[in-house]
Amino acid sequence: MLPAMDRIAIFFAMGGYAAFVWPAFAVAAVVMAALVIATLHTLRRREREIAEIFKARPPRPGPR
Amino acid sequence: MHRFANPGRFMRMASAVLPWSTAATILLIATGLVWGLFFSPPDYQQGESVRIIYVHVPSAWMALFIYSCMAAASASALIWRHPLGDLVARAASPIGACFTFIALVTGSLWGKPMWGTWWVWDARLTSMLILFFLYLGHMALLNAFDDANRGNRAAAILAIVGFINVPIIKFSVDWWNTLHQPESVFRLGGPTIDPSILWPLLIMGLGFSFFFVTLLLLRVRSEFLAARLRLAAAGR
């Protein structure tokens, strides 16, 4: 059994392909996270704007 | 289907589904990552570089699946005037563009060590790049008009016409001699990938699907609010 540090180093080395494997996972993580953040940011802004409009002008009662 | 044509009913259904789809996304992607990075074996030819498969292939599946959803939603908006069709198409195309981008970049990062080049103009890679531009064109057309309805219509026509690219991508590896490897999962005669790699790959694929569902529900809600804001701004 190798010492823990060596096993961690071997894992991150990815058999010499570290320069390709980790950027691939990083790109996927960054793009997906950015999409989630942008989606939530826009959603919250629109919810605020709608709330402001209805505070100033209550919705007309109508058939649902 | 028409039960969900009422946006109010759709929003209530979305609120009920969201916590479950969020939990499924986190659980499946975490499982797929741990399995794929720690427990699945290296490939006997490609070594550890094969692990790129766990982000590259599910992203490429999503790129095609989301485009198909977008084309179906666009058709329902154009033909039946389904009120959710335009909202779904608007909500879906940025997600699809992101997955196409991930598939292209991770494919490039896989191509360099395995093929010796970042890019080749072979049929699979070129048709995927066209898919990326179709997504960008769709997003640009949506916002190219002052009248949102005209933007929706123009973008819907692009989405439907551009659907021809989806079977071309799918079968490009059979129809042309490509550097890209042939289909190894969804093929007649069953998958040719060993189960030790296939299982974490399918779990990641399922996780990415739930990620799409979760994000789509949030974005449809957001687009619904945007449409109401446009009506309010128009004084109606």
Q: What percent strand of chain A?
A: under 5%
Largest sheet of chain B: none
**Helix-strand makeup class of chain B:** mainly alpha
Task: Report the count of strand segments of chain B.
Answer: 0
Shape verdict of chain B: globular
Roughly what is the average pLDDT of chain B, rounded to an integer? 92
Give the termini separation of chain B. 28 Å
| Largest contact between chains | A-B, 26 and 33 residues
What structural class is derived from the secondary structure elements of chain A? mainly alpha
Please report the distance between the alpha carbons of the first and last residues of chain A: 69 Å
**Rg estimate of chain B, integer Å:** 19 Å
Content of β-strand of chain B:
under 5%
- Global outline of chain A: rod-shaped
Order of H and E elements of chain B = HHHHHHH
Characterize the quaternary organization of these chains.
heterodimer
Instruction: Tell me, rounded to a whole number, the average pLDDT of chain A.
Output: 88
Say how many strands of chain A there are. Answer: 0
Structure commentary:
The complex is a heterodimer of chains A (64) and B (236). Chain A is an all-alpha fold and 64 residues long. Chain A is built from two helices and no strands. The longest helix of chain A has 39 residues, at 18-56. Helix content of chain B is 76%, strand content 0%. Chain B is built from seven helices and no strands. In chain B, α1 (7-39) runs antiparallel to α7 (195-233), α2 (53-80) packs parallel to α7 and α4 (123-142) packs antiparallel against α6 (165-175). The mean pLDDT of chain B is 92. Classes of the chains: A mainly alpha (64), B mainly alpha (236).
Features:
heterodimer, A: 64 residues, mainly alpha, 2 helices, B: 236 residues, globular
